[in-house]
Design brief:
Helix content is about 40%, strand content about 25%. The protein has about 400 residues and is an alpha+beta fold.
Amino acid sequence: KVISMPNNIVSINNELYNYLNDVNYGMSKPQFNHLTTIVNGLINLPGTKTLSEIAENVYSAKDKSCICKFLSSSRWDDNLLNRNRINYLNFFLENNIVPESVGFLVIDDTVNSKESAKRMQGLSYNYSHTESKNVWSHCVVTSNFVTADKSIPLEYQPYYKEEFCNRVKKDFKSKVDIAKDFIISFKSPSNCKKVYCLMDSWYTSNNLIETALLKGYHLIGAIKSNRKISPLGISLQLSEFEKYIDPNTLDLVTVKGKNYKIYTYEGNVAKFPNAKVLICYEVSKDGFESPVYLMSTDILLDSETILEYYLHRWSIETSYKYFKGNLGFDKYRIRSIVSIERYFLIVFLAYNFLELFRITVSHKTLNTIGKVQKHLNNLMIKSFVCFIYEKSKQNVNLEDILIELKIA
């Protein structure tokens, strides 16, 4: 019979402690203890990582009610802590980007399903792409900055329906408004020669295109089949124009091991005066898949580069998988939007640490967030063994050790 190690966490990794201390703006000692406790638990505990489990298994944790009060009513400025987080990331990027790099600001949203929740604030029906239906949930708009092998979650903001905002006297912002704010506030690292905004068809709009161009960024986004183009001065929806394409005129492009047949159009796209549009068919053993339509405001890029750049958008989907599968981003049971938004901030702090650790650590094998977590988990187990060893050297009674470890 295999006996697994207990989940108890008796210390915090030095790098994690120093990182949280660097972004901290001056919390009291008890407040900082709650912050380090929650982040430590999110990174190192297996399973669902609820606040109850963190309270039960982290040596430094107070009881669950104290942790909940820290999130709901403790007097600390989460907006200031978030600004410090962003400033820390900006400083890191400024000093860790290869000169002349191309950077990508990826914007999308995700939903945290809460089907059984009744009293949790801010819930509404939002469309889930994974479930292909509207689900009772919180919707969170986020941004990632991607360059080379780096993918760093930057901004986050929950999207609330207008009626809820009116009820709680909160300024309403649409998802496009939130995305616009992300583009405006983004600080591009000076080493980046170009920045492209990447988004799916829900966000690709003239509003965001103009916002990006005013910041000096180009936009590459998916567009819907009903978007109109004007070949030879004739206005047609993409789905209609596609019927007239001769398959023999398509270009074959290979990107990341996959073959695509592509038709390239340059000209007016709806109300935007001049852009490139790609009609992309992924080639499979059974023929062509249904087309994907991509638009680039940078008309100097060739079709292969546009497609290659757009595929960086997938990094944000990967980050959502890590957020939920590894860090409990959607596992909260707290009710107030103050607590929930503070919880989101703490999860982002945890993810940022893991990604920065992955980038800077010398171990080449730690090339994913999951592997970094496993490495830190091993360090946690070592500290657990060392804790018991030191206590035994001090002749501490076994029962007292079990009580300290919360496993009596």
